[in-house]
Each structure stands twice: as structure tokens, then as C-alpha cells.
Amino acid sequence: MEELKIALIGAGFMGKAHSMAFATMPMCYWPAPALPVRDLVIDIDKDIAEEAMLRFGFSRFGTDWKQAVTDPSIDIIDIATPNDMHLEIAIEAFKNGKHVFCEKPIARNVAEAEQMYNAAKSSGVKHMLAFNYRRTPGVLLAKEIIEKGEIGSIQSFRGTYHQDWSAAQSTPISWRFQKDISGSGALGDLGSHVIDLARFLVSEISHVTGYSNTLIGERPIRCGGVDTIGNVQIQDRTRMATVDVDDEVSFICKFKNGASGSIEATRNAWGRNNFITLEIYGDKGSIYFNYENRDELQVFYADDPVNRRGFRTIYTGPAHPEGSALWPIPALGIGYIDTKIIECHDFIQAIIENKEVSPNFKDGFEIAKICDAVQRLEDEGSWLSI
Ligand code: SOE
Fold it and tell me: What's the predicted TM-score (pTM) here?
């Protein structure tokens, strides 16, 4: 079986998730399209890089990403760094003929996204963005139901992504709150996932109007501990840093197919953990999905007898998209890693079969255009006073 050597750049939370997917993809998809080999892991912190080599099962480690992109034995560059590094690494990787798998959002802003898409287009290699939630079996089933016309033509979409890890004032500053590193806050971090889902399930977005807001303008500087997204005990509350990105964003949109939509994202919604909800209303029925109950898809069919109408709950399993690769019984429990395994499979398959895979850098650029428009609304002012 063919082998593809991976260099992972960035050994944090996402590096761990990607490594698990590379390790377990062939256990689910057998024969695998090719075997992903965890060869080289890079982190600027030498101790973290060395630990990641042992912990995530890589053969080598390093501290300079240029070592990875210029290494002739590497086939795939996996970018799991903060957003400010995506552009430079991706461009160099393409120049060296590497396939690129990149964390979302594609970049800090639309200008960077455009450069990355142009480089990807002329590279002739495969590129993919890690908008993994569209590969949740429940979401794939929703797509199948919509494409078969079972809920008719889509009239409206409501999508949310709510978390609460930054709701506490004591959540320390990190790159996710700094525009020069992240580009935006909840918008790029969470809203981009919902935009991806909306484009995947409904159609391209043509217009937006909306609002974003920073709720907590400064946060303590972490001293000691590791940045584990919100949960860090050791902080110096006397030293504060400014937050210059949005904590929450909400916008309405028009889709090119005529549907209307609304999208909300916040990291300050107490009690919400990974609250990705999708409501899709067609002229023959409706779909509801909530990632916090991701084994389930709720579907309503208007042609059910009037006295039997109601949302039915379908538990995804072997009869549903990607189900036969995963678990033999519905409701055994779809996990975050399952979405990453499917994503990893589809990327490796695209490389081996030389076909396009989505979401790719083109999708990333389209999503960046939408995020950019939402950000510009703040400057250009779209409010009418009462
Ligand atoms: C933090 O909000 C985060 O890690 C996001 O960056 C990811 O994209 C999401 O999948 C989980 O939450």
C-alpha cells in the first residue's frame, strides 16, 4: 500500500486531533487509499515538539517549519499553527510541491486568503481546509436529504455556534483574542464553521448585514500553565492585555439560490459548549441538527398525515453516509475524532485519485470574503436608530 509522509506543523490541540486521525483512519477505512505516515512534527518550542513526537507517534521532531517544507521526503504539510503562520507556510509548501492540509480559517483576512488560493490554484497539488463539522454523519445525512429534494426547496437557514470558554473575564489573553495573529475573534474561529456548513448545505452566500461586538475588552496575561482554551489556573491579574477582536457576531444573509439565513457565533454563551445548531426549512419539510447531540438528526416531513406530523429523530449509523467505516450500531457515539477521520480519509483519497476535495482553499477564500464583509459592516455602519 502506498505511503504518504506527513509533516505536522503545530503540536497543540489541533495537532493532537490531526495526529489521531492520521493514526486511526486506516482502522476505519480499509483498505485505506494510502497509509498516512506520521514522520516529522514541528513546534517552535523544542520541548513541546519532542513531547509531541513521542505522544502523537511521529518519528522525528524539529523547531523550524522551513525544515518540513523543504524536506524532499515529505508529501503532506499539515498546518495546525495559529492563523498568522498559515500564509507563509502554505505558500512555501506549494512552491515545494507539497500537498497542504490547513486549519481553519484559511488566514487572517481576505487578502491573505486570496494569495493562498492563487498559490494553491497554480500548484497542481491538493489542498484542504479543516472545516471538519461538515463531515459529521448527521450533517452528511442532512445534505443527502436536501439533495434528494425530500424537504423541498430550501427557504431559510439558521445556524449558530456558541461556546462559553471566553465568557469569564479571567480567561487569559491568547492569540485567539489578538487581531494581528488571529485576524478576527468568534467570527473566524466559530462563525467560519457555520458559514462553511451554510455553503455546504444551502448555496453560495450573496449578501450579508450584521453586527459584531467585543464584550470583554481586556484580559489577564497568562504566566505559567499551558493555553488550553480558557482553562488555565495560573494568571497574573495585575497585568492585562487588550482584546481587539469580536467576542460575538451575528448576521443575516441572502443565499444565491434565493434562501435567507442567519448566522450567530459567540464564545461567551455560558452553558454552551460546542453548540453548533442548524435549522433548515424547505417548502416540504425541515431539518434540525445540534452538534451537542451529534448522533441525531431531526427531520420533519410536511406530507406526513396531519395527525402524525412531528420531528422524527434519526440516529446515524451504518445505513448513513460514512457509517460503514465507523461503528456497527447507530447511537454508539459519533465523536469529534470521527469527523477528523472522515476528513483525513477524503484528503488522502483525493491525493491518491488525483481529484478535487472540498472544503479547499477556494472555499476558504469564499468564506474569507464573507467574513471580511461582516467585519466591514462594523466600520461602514449598517444600523438605523429608532
Ligand atoms: C475554539 O473555539 C475551538 O477550538 C475552535 O478553534 C475550533 O475550530 C472548534 O472546532 C472547537 O473550538
Answer: 0.97
